[in-house]
Amino acid sequence: MGERKGQNHYYPPDYDPKVGSLNKWQGTHALRERARKIHLGIIIIRFEMPYNIWCDGCKNHIGMGVRYNAEKTKVGMYYSTPIYQFRMKCHLCDNHFEIKTDPANLDYVIVTGARRQENRWDPTQNEQIVPETKEVQKKLFDDPMYKLEHGAKDTKAAEDAKPVLGQLYQRNSGVWRDDFEANSRLRAEFRASKKQIKQQDEKDKALLAKSSLDISLLPESESDRKMASLMRLHSAKSIAERDREKRSTILTRPALPSTSGVGESSAQKVKIAGAKLEMKSLGIVKKTAASPALVLASGSKRKVEETIVEEKKPKLLLCNYGSGSSDSD
Asked: Which domain of life is it from (predicted)?
């Protein structure tokens, strides 16, 4: 492939092989635009994101494997291994972030402009096989006693893991002895769960349509059921109690503004309103029928009083002052 490309290069008539390569004769670099900053020690390469990060400029997530045109610069050495730094621009904003290699830990380190999404864990916590570190490898090579102790620990760990491995082997052999049966069982469970999910979706849609809501409902939990059972959406008083209170309020309210009821408590007013109304309490006196003797006595008494009043009235004297004789007067 390389020879074919070399043979296909065009060499002009004035080309001098003594100058060197064709790129050197033309004064260009083989990387063309990617080497436009080579005089500053910078080469533009295609960099692939080694892990998930968060951009500090736009706060967006950038996944592992996203590729950028990065400026590659040599910033140091780790023993005989060079340390490179890559500077690139976020494709979602104008922020730039820099990442450099870490040969000591076989990793990449974010310098500026972003932060790493932590998905790292200790492999020894989940019983993964961890390769030996350089210090341990050096001790195993130089110290025979340490190598013997290390081998004894490995043998003890293997003996301790045998029962667990045996249980796992028995379980796998019991479950996956018949692939068709295991597959049929899994598919039956999947169909049952799918049917339950479909029924729950229909219930949720009916509830949302009834409530005129357009939200996503979460699955129910035991705490939600307890809270719903403790809630009371109806009034604390019944209709009869509210009608009774309204009636007592109307009865205790004075018809005319007065101060006669000042100082009386509401309990006293309710008691008065609830008491049975009697004629005596209202000031009504019932007249009794009089006997005939009393009627006659009262009639004679009235006549006597009338005669006494007539006697007390002065008598009128008629005189004729117009006549001349006094005898006739």
From this structure: Eukaryota
Domain boundaries, the chain: 21-116, 130-180
**Model pLDDT, residue 273:** 52
Q: At what angle do helices 144-175 and 134-142 cross, to 10 degrees?
A: 120
User: What is residue 119's predicted lDDT score, i.e. its pLDDT?
Assistant: 84
d(CA 62, CA 65): 9
| 121: pLDDT strictly greater than 50 | yes
Number of H helices, E strands in the chain: 9, 8
Torsion, CA 102, CA 103, CA 108, CA 113, rounded to 10 = 30
Residue type, 262: V
Q: What's the Rg (C-alpha) of the chain? A: 58
Query: Which of 44, 34, 52, 42 shows the shortest CA–CA distance to 108?
Result: 52
CA–CA gap between residue 325 and residue 314 (Å, rounded): 27
Structural tokens at position 25? 């004769």
Polymer length in residues for the chain? 329
